[in-house]
Amino acid sequence: MATAKKAPAAKAAPAKRTPNAAFMKPMTPSPTLAAVIGSKPMPRTEVTKKVWEYIKKNKLQDATNKRMINADAKLKDIFKKPQVSMFEMTKLISGHLS
């Protein structure tokens, strides 16, 4: 007995997401965070981008586990410990924004 094949369902185009206003509001970094990313106010998304640029430029990602960040002297002032996960990093950075 032959079964009829169904045509694959057409995928709907994903709706454009609008950024949350809270993420786009410029935040002022603390003096310790400003040493890493600069002192001008910027949105949280931009702060995270700048921190990642700093981490990659200074090769601070752990070689065996890329999800871990090894803190140098500047980042140790922000993180308060020698190594943090990338998920914990964003939480610790938000404490340095106002």
From TrEMBL:
<feature type="compositionally biased region" description="Low complexity">
    <location>
        <begin position="1"/>
        <end position="22"/>
    </location>
</feature>
<dbReference type="InterPro" id="IPR003121">
    <property type="entry name" value="SWIB_MDM2_domain"/>
</dbReference>
<dbReference type="InterPro" id="IPR036885">
    <property type="entry name" value="SWIB_MDM2_dom_sf"/>
</dbReference>
<feature type="domain" description="DM2">
    <location>
        <begin position="22"/>
        <end position="98"/>
    </location>
</feature>
<dbReference type="InterPro" id="IPR019835">
    <property type="entry name" value="SWIB_domain"/>
</dbReference>
<protein>
    <submittedName>
        <fullName>SWIB/MDM2 domain-containing protein</fullName>
    </submittedName>
</protein>
<dbReference type="Pfam" id="PF02201">
    <property type="entry name" value="SWIB"/>
</dbReference>
<feature type="region of interest" description="Disordered">
    <location>
        <begin position="1"/>
        <end position="27"/>
    </location>
</feature>
